[in-house]
Specification:
Helix content is 33%, strand content 21%. It is an alpha+beta fold and 233 residues long. It has 2 domains: 7-60 and 154-207, no CATH class; 62-146. The protein has a 4-stranded antiparallel β-sheet. A 3-stranded antiparallel β-sheet has the order 2-6-5, with no helix packed on it. Strands 8-9 form a two-stranded antiparallel sheet. Helix 1 crosses helix 5 (168-181), helix 2 (38-58) packs across helix 5 and helix 2 (38-58) crosses helix 6 (188-206). The radius of gyration is 23 Å and the shape is elongated. The protein starts with 6 loop residues before the first helix and ends with a strand.
């Protein structure tokens, strides 16, 4: 199994790449006495956000899709989706009532971006509206959206949205950021290694899960959020 690359391990790798001397008091990037690793931790977290965003745009966003379900009371015309969904890139909204829950079926809810009282629409960036009176009966509402990286604070926290075998990419990206902030010369070898790891990461998540269901090199129908669509492997 690949190394876990938790926050502590990533910070140590960044220090190694940066050639950080722990014993040198005036060493660049040393944090305050109460939090000596502050700058390294922030650089790793920023790299985590940046690399996931890059992978979602340049690789395959479906790898990062996740679900969240909320309850919409039948007599309420509006639903507050909360901060997480308000900031998220949404791909699908589905509903079902208690009867449908018994069968497991969901029905897609078509949501307008225009404020029209007779349909389902966004009242503002975090509030959905269902006509003038609400859905009429309690509904479960399921959102499919792009997951966002969670901030890592503790040594054992892991960048779970990045597969373990690619997590050292974050160390290279963080090191490049720190060298830029310190106005150091960016080492081409560091950038080249980061770009190589990026490309491997993007290719891996583009292969789908399972990676293939037919003969290698053929076009295989994959079933996902877009329905059954061909994907070249």
């Amino acid at each position: 199994m690949a190394k876990r690359w938790n926050l502590e391990e990533l910070i140590e790798e960044v220090k190694f790449l940066y050639n950080f001397n722990q014993s040198q008091v005036d060493q660049d990037m040393r944090g305050p006495s109460t939090d000596a690793d502050k700058h390294f931790r922030e650089a790793v977290n920023e790299a985590y956000v940046d690399e996931v965003e890059e992978a979602a745009q340049m690789g395959d966003v479906s790898y990062f899709l996740t679900l969240k379900t909320l309850n919409w009371p039948g007599s309420s015309p509006t639903l507050d989706v909360g901060d997480e969904l308000a900031d998220a890139t949404l791909y699908r909204v589905e509903t079902r009532d208690a009867t449908a829950a018994a069968t497991g079926a969901w029905t897609q809810l078509w949501v307008s971006n225009w404020r029209e009282s007779g349909n389902h629409h966004w009242l503002d960036r975090r509030t959905l509206q269902w006509g003038l009176t609400g859905p009429g009966s309690d509904k479960s509402v399921r959102f499919t959206y792009v997951a966002e990286p969670a901030q890592m604070f503790d040594d054992m926290d892991e960048p779970t949205l990045v597969p373990r075998r690619f997590r050292h990419l974050l160390a290279y990206a963080a090191c490049l950021k720190l060298r830029f902030v310190a106005d150091d010369q960016i080492i081409d070898a560091l950038r080249k290694r980061r770009d190589e790891l990026r490309e491997r990461f993007w290719k891996a998540i583009c292969q789908g899960r399972p990676a293939q269901t037919g003969y290698p090199g053929t076009t295989t129908a994959m079933s996902g959020i877009y329905g059954s669509t061909p994907r070249n492997l």
